[in-house]
Amino acid sequence: MIRKFLQAASVMGLMVVAAPVHADDPQIKAEAQRILAQFDNEPKIVQVQQAASSYARVNPDSYDSWMTSARLANLLPKRLYGHMRNTNTDSKDLRTTTASSGSVSDLTSNDDQLQLEVRLEWDLTKVVFNRDGIAAARQIERIVNQREDLLTTVNKLYFARRQLQVEIALDPPTSVDRAVKTQLRIQGLTADLDALTGGWFSKHVPKGS
User: What is the span of the domain harbouring residue 63?
Assistant: First the structure.
């Protein structure tokens, strides 16, 4: 019917302008959400990022502990000395006896004493200028850069795979050739994500996705 109307309008010399379709149209939004909802049972991008970071050992949770360890390392003493010895001291105790003679007796007692001497030394220059802290900061910077590159790669692979899935949902293949090629591309992207997550991704993807 629309085609006949356009042909008639063309014959009559009328200009027909198609009404623009807006992406914020409620029906379009609802349909887009319905299509994307088909993949809600698959891992979310944040989960894949976390799995990749954990597998590559570039988890940011460990950064703070490295810096803390570097700062505390030089607060410990540089050297520790210990010396222990026994000393003998003589002490005299004079007292008046109760004997009828009233003589004074000298009572001598020996006391054994244990003496412990401990000496600690710190290098305060390393507290002000900490080479270990600088080395840790450089290592953290290197790992942060690696993590950013890793997450960028994960994002590209994840959404390239999702785009293929959506294309199949919107326009199902009508030939075996196209269906096979599309499935191979999805499987290839799945394998790439598995390589970055140590096989975690495919284990959390439902069968047949």
Answer: 24-72+126-203
Single out the residue in 123, 139, 158 at which a domain terminates.
123
Spatial separation of the C-alpha atoms in residues 125 and 74, rounded to whole Å: 9
- Domain boundary (123, 157, 186) is at 123
Dihedral class, residue 6 (left if φ above 0, else alpha if ψ from -120 to 50, else beta) = alpha
Q: Take residue 2 and report the two structure tokens written for it.
A: 């629309």
Q: Is the dihedral of CA 153, 156, 157, 159 positive or negative?
A: positive
CB 29 within 8 A of CB 191: no
Is residue 100 one of the residues assigned to a domain? yes
Express each pLDDT in 154-209 by its tens digit: 999 999 999 999 999 999 999 999 999 999 999 999 999 999 999 999 999 988 66
Quick: pLDDT tens for 60-113: 666 666 556 656 666 666 666 666 666 655 444 444 444 444 444 444 444 556
